[in-house]
């Protein structure tokens, strides 16, 4: 039983007049049986929740109930503050400030300093170190469209670089691995699609509402799929790139090989993206095995080298020089 879910259910019940077990189950992606257990736990904690059956029935908190400072423990309030504080800057608004202020009001004055210290012990920043694009205008438009059930019109770049114009019903904003997406029903494809915000060229709200569809749950936890595709390859790497490899495998995967090198068991999928990772290590990394991965890597290196052959460079730069002389 997750304490964070119990707190969230309590906050929802304080905000809403009545809500059904099925609605709560959909919100938290658990079974209705789990919701009933959660509600029972909340009741046992002294918060009076009762249920009504039939059409329009559901759970609600008894009238005149008020949240007091004893509702949450210091640890629970710290967890809430950490969770709220970790919201990306692009999602923060007046509602965020109000929520943050309300939570702080429940902290007893004598515990405020220690709670603040604990909540600041974990800092979450979703911004990249370099090359960060400001996606806040896009996110704000999508949030507005979500709230008002308005269509979005956008120009979108595909994986292969083709530009298409889409009209989409928005259903979810998604932050996955520090990348922003939105999930929506695309009229061009007649199906639900996941759109990456960095591949959106233009985005406008259409003055037209839509009746929301029941949308499928996104498969965001791909661990099982990746595990089935993954193989372990052996790399010989220079010590200078150990930091980069530790993003992908733990220290136990490294075996010392001479004074400045290591043999590494590296998790790998036979796809272009993963070959790109190996190539990014340059001459500090050599794939030792298996032979088929090593062979494919050699082919990709040879194809890359052909782009930079002297003859090709000469023809290209001669064309550049000619263009420059014309401009001059």
From TrEMBL:
Note the superkingdom of the native organism. Bacteria
Q: Which Gene3D superfamilies match?
A: Winged helix-like DNA-binding domain superfamily/Winged helix DNA-binding domain
What are this entry's molecular-function GO terms? DNA binding; DNA-binding transcription factor activity
Record-annotated HTH deoR-type domain positions: 2-57
| UniProt xrefs under Pfam families | HTH_11, WCX, WYL
- Statement: the UniProt record of this protein carries the keyword Transcription: yes
Sorted UniProt keywords: DNA-binding, Transcription, Transcription regulation
Q: Which InterPro entries match?
A: CBASS_pafABC_assoc_protein (IPR051534), DeoR_HTH (IPR001034), HTH_11 (IPR013196), PafC-like (IPR028349), WCX_dom (IPR057727), WH-like_DNA-bd_sf (IPR036388), WH_DNA-bd_sf (IPR036390), WYL_dom (IPR026881)
Q: What is this protein called?
A: DNA-binding transcriptional regulator YafY
Originating organism: Kurthia zopfii
């Amino acid at each position: 039983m997750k304490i964070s879910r119990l707190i969230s259910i309590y906050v929802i019940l304080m905000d809403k007049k009545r809500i059904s077990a099925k609605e709560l189950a959909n919100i938290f992606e658990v079974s209705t049986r789990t919701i009933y257990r959660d509600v029972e736990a909340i009741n046992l904690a002294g918060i009076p929740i009762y249920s009504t059956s039939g059409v329009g029935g559901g759970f609600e908190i008894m009238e005149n109930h008020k949240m007091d400072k004893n509702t949450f423990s210091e640890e629970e309030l710290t967890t809430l503050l950490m969770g709220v504080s970790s919201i990306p800057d692009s999602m923060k608004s007046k509602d965020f400030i109000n929520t943050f202020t309300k939570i702080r009001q429940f902290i007893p004055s004598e515990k405020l300093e220690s709670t603040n210290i604990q909540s600041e012990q974990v800092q979450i920043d979703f911004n990249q170190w370099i090359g960060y694009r400001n996606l806040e205008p896009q996110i704000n438009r999508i949030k507005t469209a979500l709230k008002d059930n308005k269509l979005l019109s956008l120009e979108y770049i595909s994986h292969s670089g083709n530009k298409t114009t889409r009209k989409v019903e928005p259903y979810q904003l998604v932050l996955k691995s520090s990348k922003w997406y939105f999930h929506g029903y695309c009229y061009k494809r007649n199906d639900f699609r996941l759109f990456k915000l960095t591949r959106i060229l233009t985005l406008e709200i259409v003055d037209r509402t839509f009746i929301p569809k029941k949308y499928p749950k996104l498969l965001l936890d791909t661990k099982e799929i990746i595990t089935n595709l993954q193989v372990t390859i052996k790399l010989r790497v220079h010590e200078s790139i150990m930091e980069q490899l530790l993003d992908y495998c733990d220290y136990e995967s490294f075996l010392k090989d001479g004074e400045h090198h290591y043999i590494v068991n590296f998790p790998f999928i036979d796809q272009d993206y993963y070959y790109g990772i190996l190539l990014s290590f340059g001459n500090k990394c050599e794939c030792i095995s298996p032979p088929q991965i090593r062979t494919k890597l050699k082919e990709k290196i040879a194809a890359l080298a052909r782009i930079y052959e002297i003859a090709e460079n000469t023809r290209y730069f001669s064309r550049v020089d000619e263009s420059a002389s014309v401009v001059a």
